[in-house]
Write a structure and sequence with these properties.
Helices cover 32% and strands 16% of the residues. The chain is α+β, with helices and mostly antiparallel strands. A hairpin with a 2-residue loop joins strand 4 and strand 5. Helix 2 packs across helix 8 and helix 3 crosses helix 5. The protein is globular, with a radius of gyration of 17 Å.
């Protein structure tokens, strides 16, 4: 997913020649068998009665686009790109890119559970953020670091995630089997600062325009109630390494 700097001339040619085809490049149904948005989970946590802080940890391919998508979801307060699934010593972009660390490119989503539920976040995830039928890849990116994973933090998240995967499978929502892993959360390591908000800050980069901008457009089109035009801006969290998550 490394993207070279785009010159002004190249960018102009891109707008003239490539942009009309970007919408066609976008997986409008994200591998689904219907043109409509995926149904909401039948099992979900109710919205909390008071504002609070909760988190979801998801992997679904290159974290640039996944971060950008969830920054547009109402109720989300911060989204951090990072790594989960491997050891602290190998949680760097250079090592993770080798594909043998056990890490997946991941996002940690902080949200207010009185405004958006865990199940609603998963609906966004399966509808537009990732193609759950692709094994160890997403679009042009290949390797186990691009696999789709739901890292659940507690039994409630585990049940919601597993029941939703079963619901989507039973309804044949996708043309191929769902291969998304649902595994316990152990640790999250934030990625290097230059990865944070990369898609939002570089919307004209070829990779972003072709692979990630269509995801945000699909969110607005397919799930308008779960879309806001002004995205939340990433901010660093402390502690940086998240080992325990009780929400």
């Amino acid at each position: 997913m490394q993207t070279p700097r785009i010159s002004t001339t190249l960018r102009a040619w891109f707008v003239l020649l490539v942009m009309p085809a970007v919408a066609a490049c976008a997986p409008a149904t994200n591998g689904t068998t219907t043109q409509n948005a995926l149904p909401a989970p039948t099992v979900d946590a109710p919205l909390a009665s008071h504002s609070g802080n909760a988190t979801a940890v998801l992997a679904g391919g290159c974290f640039w686009g996944v971060q950008w998508v969830f920054e547009h979801v109402p109720g989300v307060t911060n989204v951090t790109s990072g790594y989960s699934g491997g050891a602290a010593a190998t949680a760097t972009y250079e090592q993770v890119s080798e594909g043998d660390t056990g890490h997946a490119e991941t996002v940690r989503i902080a949200y207010d559970p009185s405004k958006v539920s865990y199940g609603q976040l998963l609906r966004v995830y399966f509808s537009v953020a990732t193609d759950p039928t692709e094994l160890n890849r997403q679009g042009p990116d290949t390797g186990s670091q691009y696999r789709s994973v739901i890292f659940y933090a507690n039994s409630a998240q585990e049940k919601i995630a597993k029941d939703y995967v079963a619901q989507l499978g039973a309804s044949h929502a996708f043309a191929a089997p769902i291969v998304t892993q649902v595994v316990p959360f152990k640790a999250f390591y934030p990625a290097e600062d230059y990865h944070q908000d990369y898609a939002r800050l570089h919307p004209d980069a070829l990779y972003i325009a072709i692979n990630d901008a269509p995801k945000v457009a699909a969110l607005q089109r397919e799930l308008p109630a779960l879309y806001r035009a002004q995205p939340v801006i990433w901010h660093a969290e402390h502690p940086t390494t998240i080992m325990v998550d009780v929400h």
